[in-house]
From TrEMBL:
Protein name in the entry: Bifunctional NAD(P)H-hydrate repair enzyme
Residues that coordinate or bind K(+): 59, 125, 161
Domain YjeF C-terminal positions: 227-501
Binding-site positions, (6S)-NADPHX: 58-62, 129-135, 140, 158, 262, 325, 376, 442
Catalytic activity: (6R)-NADPHX = (6S)-NADPHX; (6R)-NADHX = (6S)-NADHX; (6S)-NADPHX + ADP = AMP + phosphate + NADPH + H(+); (6S)-NADHX + ADP = AMP + phosphate + NADH + H(+)
NCBIfam families: yjeF_cterm (TIGR00196), yjeF_nterm (TIGR00197)
Gene name of the encoded protein: nnrD
Keyword NAD: yes
Domain of life: Bacteria
Signal sequence annotation: none
Amino acid sequence: MVKIFNVSQIKKIDGCTVINQGITSIDLMERASLAVAEKLIRFLDPDQCILVFAGTGNNGGDALAIARILLSRHFKLYVYIVAPDELFSDDCLVNKECLERLTDVKLIKENQDIPHIPEDCIVIDGLFGSGLNRPLEGVYLDVVTVINASHNKVYSVDMPSGMFVEDNASNNPEGIIKAEKVFTFQFPKLSLLLPDSANYCKKMTVVNIGLCEKCIKEEETDLFFIEKSDATQLPIPRDNFSHKGTFGKALLIAGSYGKMGAAVLSARACLRTGVGLLTMHVPRCGVDILQTAVPEAMVQADEFPENVSSVGDNIDQFAIGIGPGIGTDDKTKDLLSDLFDKYRKPMVIDADALNIIAGDESLKEKIPSKSIITPHPVEFDRLMGGVSINGYERLQKAGEFANRYDIYIVLKGAYSAIITPERKVYFNSTGNPGMATGGSGDVLTGMITSLLAQKYLPLNAAILGVYLHGLAGDLAAKSKSQQGMLPSDMIEYIGKAYRALK
Ligand SMILES: NC(=O)C1=CN([C@@H]2O[C@H](COP(=O)(O)OP(=O)(O)OC[C@H]3O[C@@H](n4cnc5c(N)ncnc54)[C@H](OP(=O)(O)O)[C@@H]3O)[C@@H](O)[C@H]2O)[C@H](O)CC1
Ligand SMILES: [K+]
């Protein structure tokens, strides 16, 4: 797992690296800058005009070092330092003086010094990084406004300038660089993983700068970024002598009139994820649909034609998933309440089941311990009874909710977050915007329920389910495009996603 740290932890690890590796801070800056420059060199066109905007701190120092390295590789550069008071950090000053020996470096001290930014150029943004401690104002705000208005591709060093590493609730949305890509050092930054960063960071690339592994190991955090190597360790190998009983029994309670597709998708995804036996509990109108569309599943018909209203006895033998397409009919509300009374093992709760819970406080108290709920942000806000001001606040609330009700929350998004009852957060690294379509969540519910049935611990079921779901989405997008892919395609790629983990 890659750890995610706050600013003071990053500073501490920096300092500790300098001591333990016997280097100076300028060596570390050079290493970081070289790592970013090498990435840029791979795709930048040497004939394109590149504008570098540096600040006066260490983020600026990085940008100036990157400019020097690019110049040595014959890129065409124009360099500006925004320095209203000309107070430079020591390492920034060293890099400024080095660069001034090679090229003209212009200072921007006030608004009138801001250059016209032509179209079709590239901007390298090194105004501010993790040292930002207040929203941008004055000439800094003006420079950011001009860069954003130029609509050129902007590559940011460490952070989009103007964006805080964690909470941006008090920030000025106009005072943040809109970056095409952010090359962030060593650790993903929390704010870059939250949905509010969509306008400011289209893509994040984590650049390894060789910080001291021992310091990283010793520094504690509750925030993690899931990598392939983490997911690879999770699948439970299949024993030669195993039989269908070995891989558990799942019961998916899904569907209502007009929403049987959700039941079909969750059923197929559950089976493709490896469950031994799947039973679908659906309204009577859905029996033929399920039996035809998913022959591998057994079907239990509800007594009602259009909605699910009750589940039978003997449900302890199953891992249960409830929600896809069930609607919020009163009969279905009764079912959920009854289910929570009867069944005390972890279950997967999604979609309309969450909307039902949102409308009834007493149901929250009854959610079985260690269950996994899988809301998207709107469902989560409904569950909280109010909209969060930003992704950071939503994450805090999710931590409190998970802790209070002793459950796991999969907060779906570009980097889906798995929040544990201990308030730890694991961000997923797979997936793409092609998955943002109706049915995608039903697939995830089926997958996680399947893993619970196969005796994965709830946390592992959530992590592996979310990772595989995203990976299947990535494989589907590769073959069918983000626009053309469907949740059904993702299901077809679950097998390949498993293979990719080998
Ligand atoms: N391990 C690493 O990640 C490494 C990171 N590096 C780079 O260093 C920066 C962080 O550098 P730092 O000098 O700490 O901070 P900044 O460059 O982001 O900011 C510089 C100073 O600017 C002042 N400040 C803050 N906010 C504002 C604002 N809104 N307007 C004007 N000025 C502002 C603040 O100083 P004050 O005294 O005014 O409080 C900042 O200190 C990191 O992002 C990386 O790029 C290293 O190069 C390698 C290791
Ligand atoms: K920056």
